[in-house]
């Protein structure tokens, strides 16, 4: 007998909850903010809106379904099941944070603060939840398959991201490595830089776009569902031992960018989730390209 679908509500702690964790009481948190010229009232109002949104979304889950909740900080320890429908309640970035832990489950994005969030990935309101859940489990429901990027290391470690993957030093130091397309004869160009960013069409609304604008790049930014990535090297340093001829490019389906580490540590993380990163060291290689997995965003 097959199990009923499970709705997994993904959320993150509000600013008010973080303040209470740090300061202990409402009064202490209010004093802290007032000493910096801020009022706690707006923080509390946003917290209340988020809590109300979570209640409304939870109430919209069909009675015959199972349900669960997971907070952003616990995503790397939560086991998503194939039959889950993932309901992200919060900001656009929370969808990206969640995407790397999924394997094709449909995702519904609920905006808890319309007008404050861009609404690129959290496109719906709480009142739409019930209809969206039905659509997510019905055949022929409308979804967008958003392209994701992956990094695969030579020790089989793998990392997925919806917006971008960043490879760089763990602090404000210099990463040293060799960079080149996979399959090229030779080890690639020796580089020293503050890191390499590989981004998707979804990421083209964020960090990738910032680098694209900074470079004055003539490359066309990819669309969210397009099987194409752009990559940029950040602040490559020219020297007798390191080059700067390969600082930008694009990757299509089946194409890979290879990076071989030539320093003590290089960190690889996706979508700002630094706590869940790969750590590579001398001589290790990592390949970056379009992931076979995509994010199924319910529209």
Cross-sheet strand order for the largest sheet:
2-1-3-4-18-5
E-strand count: 18
Specify the structural class: alpha+beta
- Helix % is 10-25%
Overall 3D shape: globular
Radius of gyration: 21 Å
Order of helices and strands: EHHHEEHEHEEEEEEEHEEEEEEE
Described by strand count, sense and barrel closure, the largest sheet is: 6 strands, mixed
Termini separation: 30 Å
Q: What's the overall average pLDDT, rounded?
A: 94
Residue ranges: pLDDT <50 for 5 or more in a row? none
Relative strand content: 25-35%
How many H/I helical runs? Answer: 6
Question: Oligomeric status of the shown chains?
Answer: single chain
What does this structure look like?
A 6-stranded mixed β-sheet has the order 2-1-3-4-18-5, with helices on both faces. The chain has a 6-stranded antiparallel β-sheet with strand order 7-6-17-14-9-10. It has 6 helices and 18 strands. The model has no long low-confidence stretch (mean pLDDT 94). The protein starts with 5 loop residues before the first strand and ends with a strand. It is α+β, with helices and mostly antiparallel strands. β15 and β16 form a beta hairpin.
